[in-house]
């Protein structure tokens, strides 16, 4: 339960810091965005490990978040933001869908 709260708060703060970084391009907002993004991924992966990998929907969500987290390191400057944002968007849409269906 605590890990999911850390995940939710970290995700919201990562989104806010990412929007600030997208608007202002400061090094501090970039580091905060990276920190909260790593906190989000780590807390969710720990939660999945604690729950013994029982829900495949959450595993795919974690995989999408992990791909979004490492995608900026594999693309050149022109495509990095688009791929990162599309993977984060896909992860959020997938999370909403697994709760609706």
TrEMBL record:
Provide the protein name.
Uncharacterized protein
Which residue ranges does UniProt annotate as crossing the membrane?
Answer: 6-23, 35-50, 82-100
Give the source species: Pradoshia eiseniae
Q: Which UniProt keywords apply?
A: Membrane, Transmembrane, Transmembrane helix
* Superkingdom to which the source organism belongs: Bacteria
Q: Does the keyword Membrane apply?
A: yes
